[in-house]
């Protein structure tokens, strides 16, 4: 679902605003600090304290049985070339980002991204109820269907699923994900790029990246883990430690997946418009282009899907 920035603003807690310097309204400057703000900032400092030392340590008392995803999304448009899908019963989410360079060629740059996500969703819906999803197989099938339709343009993509107690993924390009445990990153995807700002991309032509080059993997999940899946509009504009702070604070404040996704997307939007601060995009830009003046964010479509890992998933065979 697409939300307006004003709708997102109304749902962002004051403690987060003070902690990250976010404005209370998009049309107003940052508020002057008051005594109340100082108290909120103190509360935020407690919530944003250091996470536990080792996210790999599992709770021995964790309940046995399958896990499932409870997820929501937020999409802030720039050129409207992102796409995403999710299926709760199958325990799978995916995002895709159309390659904007096709705009200059008079081609709908969103076409391939939307085709991939539509076909992936259709494939999941048509499967036998309770089927466990293999992200690589799903991405491969969705790609074949999109190519067979002669869909123009190109796209990055990532699909993440929960199968039993195993979190699985497959991705091509710089759409990615991060898994948080107790407020700290347990696993983070690393983008595939040919060179700066040119990610691997799926397309219909032979010059595209084959699905066989997708990065695939899996880890054992735990109840309480939080998975953040997004396009580069998120990860180019928000550092990993900033995402971790939002996760820790949102968890402490009892945020729903919807609220968490909105805060992340809203913060990414703020930083994408900044010209006086560093972002992952500007740091990489300085390193790759040797331009010391490279600074600021990257305006882009921003898609964020936040999935909470909870107990109670179905138990069926995998295909």
What's a concise summary of this model?
The chain is an alpha+beta fold and 319 residues long. The protein has helices spanning 5-11, 14-20, 35-47, 111-126, 135-148, 232-235, 240-252, 257-272, 280-289, and strands spanning 67-76, 82-87, 92-98, 154-163, 166-172, 176-181, 184-188, 193-195, 198-199, 202-203, 215-220, 226-230, 302-311. Strands 2, 3, 4, 5, 10 and 11 form a six-stranded antiparallel sheet that branches. It has a five-stranded antiparallel sheet with strand order 1-13-12-6-7.
Protein described:
With 319 residues, the chain is an alpha+beta fold. It has a single domain, classed as PPM-type phosphatase domain (Phosphatase 2c, domain 1). The chain is 31% helix and 25% strand. It contains nine helices and 13 strands. Strands 2, 3, 4, 5, 10 and 11 form a six-stranded antiparallel beta sheet that branches. Strand 6 (176-181) and strand 7 form a beta hairpin. Helix 1 (5-11) packs across helix 8, helix 2 crosses helix 3 and helix 7 runs antiparallel to helix 8. It is globular and about 50 Å long. Residues 35-63 and 314-319 have low confidence and may be disordered.
Order of helices and strands: HHHEEEHHEEEEEEEEEHHHHE
Mean pLDDT comes to 86
Question: How is the main sheet built?
Answer: 6 strands, antiparallel
Shape: globular
Say how many strands there are: 13
Please count the helical segments: 9
Could you say how many structural domains there are in total?
1
Percentage of residues in strands: 15-25%
- Structural class comes to alpha+beta
Say which CATH homologous superfamily is assigned.
Answer: PPM-type phosphatase domain
Low-confidence runs? 35-63, 314-319
CATH topology description: Phosphatase 2c, domain 1
The CATH architecture designation is 4-Layer Sandwich
Q: What is the distance, rounded to the nearest whole angstrom, between the alpha carbons of the first and last residues?
A: 30 Å
């Amino acid at each position: 679902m697409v939300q307006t920035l004003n709708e997102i603003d109304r749902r962002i807690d004051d403690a987060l605003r003070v902690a990250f310097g976010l404005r209370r309204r998009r049309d107003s400057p940052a508020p002057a600090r008051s005594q109340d703000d100082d108290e909120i900032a103190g509360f935020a400092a407690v919530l944003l304290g250091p996470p536990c030392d080792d996210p790999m340590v599992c709770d021995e008392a964790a309940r046995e049985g399958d896990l499932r995803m409870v997820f929501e999304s937020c999409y802030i448009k720039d050129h409207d070339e992102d796409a995403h899908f999710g299926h709760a019963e199958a325990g799978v989410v995916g995002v895709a980002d159309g390659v904007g360079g096709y705009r200059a060629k008079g081609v709908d740059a969103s076409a391939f991204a939307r085709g991939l996500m539509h076909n992936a969703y259709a494939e999941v819906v048509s499967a036998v109820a309770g089927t466990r999803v293999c992200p690589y197989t799903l991405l491969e099938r969705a790609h074949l269907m999109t190519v067979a339709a002669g869909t123009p343009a190109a796209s990055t993509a990532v699909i993440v699923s929960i199968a039993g107690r195993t979190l699985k993924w497959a991705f091509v390009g710089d759409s990615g994900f991060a898994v948080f445990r107790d407020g700290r990153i347990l696993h983070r995807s690393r983008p595939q790029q040919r060179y700066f700002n040119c990610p691997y991309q799926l397309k219909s032509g032979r010059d595209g990246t084959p699905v066989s080059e997708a990065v695939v993997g899996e880890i054992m999940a735990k109840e309480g883990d939080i998975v953040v899946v997004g396009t580069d509009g998120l990860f180019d504009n928000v550092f990993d430690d900033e995402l971790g702070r939002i996760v820790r604070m949102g968890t402490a404040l009892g945020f729903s997946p919807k609220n968490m996704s909105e805060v992340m997307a809203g913060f990414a939007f703020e930083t994408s418009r900044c010209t006086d601060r560093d972002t992952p995009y500007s740091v990489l830009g300085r390193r790759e282009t040797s331009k010391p003046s490279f600074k600021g964010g990257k305006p882009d479509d921003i898609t964020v899907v936040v999935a909470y890992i909870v107990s109670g998933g179905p138990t069926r065979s995998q295909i």
